[in-house]
Amino acid sequence: MRPELLKRYAAPVPRYTSYPTAPHFSNAIDGETYGAWLGALDAGLPLSLYVHIPFCNEMCWYCGCSTKVTRQHAPIARYLEGLMKEIDTVSNRIGSQHDVTHIHWGGGSPSILPPEDILALASALKSRFALARNAEFAVEIDSRGLDEDRIAAFAQAGVNRVSVGVQDFHPDVQRAINRIQSFELTSWVVDTFRKHGIGSINVDLVYGLPFQTLETLDQTMDHVLALKPDRIALFGYAHLPSRITHQRLIDESALPDTQQRFLQANRAAERLVDGGYVTVGLDHYARPDDPLASGNIRRNFQGYTTDDAAALIGLGASSIGRLPQGYVQNATPIADYERRVSEGGLATVRGHALSVEDAARALVIERLMCDFTFPAGELRDKFGAVAEPIIAEAAALCRSDTEDMVLPSGEGGEFRVTDKGRIFVRSICARFDTYLGKGTAKHSAGV
Ligand SMILES: C[S@@+](CC[C@H](N)C(=O)[O-])C[C@H]1O[C@@H](n2cnc3c(N)ncnc32)[C@H](O)[C@@H]1O
Ligand code: SF4
Predict the structure, then answer these.
(1) Which numbered atom of ligand 1 lies nearest the CA of 62?
(2) Would you identify the CATH topology of the domain 20-314?
(3) 99, 291, 303, 351: which could form a disulfide with 328 (CB 3.0–4.6 Å)?
(4) CB contact at 8 A, 414 and 408
(5) 403 CA to centre of ligand 1 in angstroms
(6) Which residues, judged by CB distance below 6 Å to any ligand atom, belong to the binding site of ligand 2?
(7) Residue 152 CB-density burial (10 A; 0-12 exposed, 13-18 middle, 19+ buried)
(8) What is the pTM for the complete model shown?
């Protein structure tokens, strides 16, 4: 890849886990609007639940998640009390005529919860929402500090999918990111989940970390392939020290440059494909028999998913929900969130009501991110006249593409992203983002 081309296409862009992206939410959307949106949900609409646990045992210096370090149980107990209140308030508004098809506990580290809290939270959700048969119940796991009692509690609670954070196995890299996690521990965690019947395992990896090289990455990949996870998420390190203060502890002189990041992403992808994994979207990999490899995927705040529920209910501090009417986000500071829910209210502080044009552009960006195609026909069918200017933008993009990043693929204005363009798909999505450039949001490198 030519350096000037890499520079142009690797300019900072959003990860497009939503459109518009979260920095463009505003405080025009509050608990009152959210309450009205919840009350107007069509009866029978399947739901997905996201529950945020904003606590960790230690801070990883690269971490961009909304979390707080605690060594005590009291703040966790207080937070869970608030969560239970919010579960009551939200479920009262929604009623019981919706099937919940997916539950996801994210963080932070939900695995910090002791067994009795895991069981209490799961049973609160199950008693207030109608869980569909075969519902997916996924939890994010930090292996450090995990014990078999917690693993058994997750199994007893009905968890059937876990996502295990690894990032990198090389000792130099682990020291530089303040995350010491041996292969032996990770292997024990994966084996013990399997022993307790939780067979579906994802591993999170990150490239672009300090002191990572193609050699260290190869060693990490050897270890990861030995674990035989069902899925792998491979994120590019998003370094935003001006916003995320603990990232200032990362030695910037040890960070790979854009060219190295590009080579690392490609090497990791090559190793995974050679190891029998199917590429899913931009940065996920799955075994060929995994549902994620079916090609029928969506994009949400956790990345790629098979979850196609029309409404996602976010519970907990900083959680984002997506309803047919738009996005809502809860207060991020834990004390603020707890105060709002303890008063019996909704904790919504910001969001975005989707216009018809937003919904059309959201469809384009989701399809580009998921299957690398511009869906002109579907756009016309669903959005009529609103689709036409967007289809004209797509035609202009194809005309201006001198680097073979996209290829027109139909009479109706369709195009597909080429193999060369795939790694830059976020930059291609950015061409359809009318909010980008407004406001002061900072984004991470486009590769
Ligand atoms: C909530 S954590 C996963 C669960 C658990 N807390 C852990 O770390 O093991 C979510 C994932 O986001 C990714 N992540 C966090 N900060 C990131 C950053 N700055 N850039 C890229 N990926 C990041 C990591 O791969 C991490 O595993
Ligand atoms: S990466 Fe995971 S364990 Fe580390 S601080 Fe972030 S949320 Fe916590």
Answers:
(1) 19
(2) pyruvate-formate lyase- activating enzyme (3.80.30)
(3) 351
(4) yes
(5) 33
(6) 56, 59-60, 63, 65, 67, 107-109, 142, 165
(7) middle
(8) 0.96
